[in-house]
Amino acid sequence: MATPNKNEAIEFVLRTSREQDVRFIRLWFTDILGALKGFAITVAELEHALLDGMGFDGSSIQGFARIDESDMVAMPDPSTFRILPWRPKENAVARMFCDVLTPDGKSFEGDPRQILKRNLERAAGLGYTFYVGPELEFFYFKDSQSTVPLDHGGYFDQTPLDLATELRRETVLMLEEMGIPVEYSHHEVATSQHEIDLRYTDALTMADTVMTHRLVVKEIALKHGAYATFMPKPVSGINGSGMHVHQSLFRGSKNAFYGSEEPWKLSKVARMYIAGLMRHAPEVTLVTNQWVNSYKRLVPGYEAPVYISWARINRSDLIRIPAYKPGREDSVRIEYRAPDPACNPYLAFAVMLAAGLEGIEKEYTPPPPVEENVYEMSERERQARGIGTLPGSLWEAIVLAEKSEIVRKALGDHAFGSLIKNKKIEWDDYRSQVTDHELKRYLPIL
Fold first, then answer.
1. Residue 390 in contact with residue 308, Cβ under 8 Å?
2. pLDDT (tens digit, 9 = 90+) per residue, 155-203?
3. Do 164 and 192 touch, CB atoms closer than 8 A?
4. Is the pLDDT of residue 3 over 60?
C-alpha cells in the first residue's frame, strides 16, 4: 500500500503526465556492471506501474536472475520522474528509475540500486547521511570506430566555438532542464577530453543522476553526429578519464567531517573515514575500476592515483582534501580519486561508504599525510613510509576483492558472486587476445 508521501508523488506524476502530453514512460534500472537497462510503457499503464510495478524477464540481464528465478518486477520510484527534453514535446517521453523486486514483492538482492540503499541504511543507523559530488570526465570522438578527436584544446582552454564546445553547452542545458544542477563544465587536460561536475547531493539521488548524465552526454553527441565515451583510457600516451568522488557525511544539517583543527578542518570522524578508505582501497578497486581498460589509466605519469596516500594539495595522492572555504562548514569533504566514469555508480558509492564506515566503527587512524610527489619517490622510500599501491591489473583487483569481507558485505552474496564470476570471464577473454602492440613489438624479431 502506498504511503501518503508516495501517494502525493504518484498523483504528481499522473497530473504532470496529463499536463505535459506524456505518452511514453521509460522505466530504468541497471545491471551489475552499471549498464542502463529498461523498457517503455504507455501512459495508459502508468498508474498500474506506479502502484504495482511492471513485470519483466530478468534472465538475460547481467548479474540478475538465475534460470529458476527469471521473473522480476520493476517498481518505479515516482520521485525520479523526469521528462526527457531531447525528445519531442508532443507525445513526450519521460523516465523513472526503478527498484527491482522479486515476484513476491521483496527487494531483489542483485539490484544495484537496492544494494546502495542497504549501505545507506547502515550509515543512517549510525546517524549519517552520505553526500557525494562526482567529477565525470569523458572524450568526444568523431565516431565510435576511431579515436579521432573533435578538438585539440587543453586544460581549461577557452577554444573558439567548435563542435565539442557546443556539445558540452547543450548537455549542461539538457541536464539542468531535467532538474540536475551542474557545478562546473570545462575542457580537461587531454585533447578532446571534457568534464562536467555535478553539484553534490545524497548518494542515491547522485547515482541516478550519474546514470542520467552518461546517457545525456551520449545522446547529445549522437544528435550532432559525434560520439562520446566514458572509457577510462581510450588513447595511450595521454590522460585517461576519471570520476573523482567528493564525499562527506552529515548528521542532520551538520557536516560530520568538519572540525576545528587547522589547517585541514577535519573532524575525527573524517580522519577515521579516510583511514577506512585507505586501508580497504585495494579490495574495493574492482568495483570503482571494474574493466580491463581501467588499469591502463591507473599508471604513473598521467595524474591518476597509483599509490595509497592522502594530502591537502597533492594531486598525486589517492585522497585529496580540498581547500576549506572560510565560514562554509559544509564545504569540508574528501576527494577520492581512483574511480573512473565507467563504473557502476550504485556499487561504487556503496563500497566506498562501506570502507569509510568500517574506519569509523573500528576507529582506524590514518597514516601521516604525504605532501611530496609520490611518483617521484623511490620504491624504497615509499616502502619506508608505508605507502601501498592500488592493484595494477584487473586480475590483481579480482584476487583482492574475492578475499574481501568488506566488498562481500557491501554487495551481498548474490551480487558479489555475480561480479567476481563476470570479471574472471572478462580477464580470461582479455589475456587470450593477441594485441597490435605484441605484433608490432615481437613479430619482426621473434
1. yes
2. 444 554 556 778 888 898 989 998 888 887 777 667 788 888 888 999 9
3. yes
4. no
DSSP of 185-239, one letter per residue? EEE-SSTTEEEEEEPPEEHHHHHHHHHHHHHHHHHHHHHTT-EEE--S-SSTTS-
Cell of 89: 514535446
Report which of 179, 2, 175 is spatially closest to residue 76, judged by C-alpha positions. Answer: 2
The structural domains of the chain, with segments of one domain joined by +, span: 4-106, 117-438
Backbone angles phi, psi at 225, to 5 degrees: 75, 20
- CB–CB of 334/273 below 8 Å? yes
- Tell me: the pLDDT tens digits for 15-40? 988 998 899 999 999 999 999 998 89
User: Rounded to 5 degrees, what are φ and ψ at 25?
Assistant: -125, 125
> Which grid coordinates belong to 78?
515516482
List CB contacts of 319: < 8 A, sequence separation 6 or more. Answer: 274, 277, 278, 309, 310, 311, 334, 335, 336, 337
CB atoms within 10 A of CB 132: 26
* CA–CA gap between residue 265 and residue 261 (Å, rounded): 5
- Give me the helix-helix angle, 394-402 and 268-288, nearest 10°: 120
In this structure, what are the phi and psi dihedrals at residue 364, rounded to the nearest 5 degrees? -65, 150
pLDDT at res. 157? 46
Q: Which CATH architecture has domain 117-438?
A: 2-Layer Sandwich (3.30)
User: What CATH number labels 4-106?
Assistant: 3.10.20.70
Q: How far apart are CA 406 and CA 284, in angstroms?
A: 8
For residues 134 and 34, what is the distance between their CA atoms, to the nearest angstrom? 16
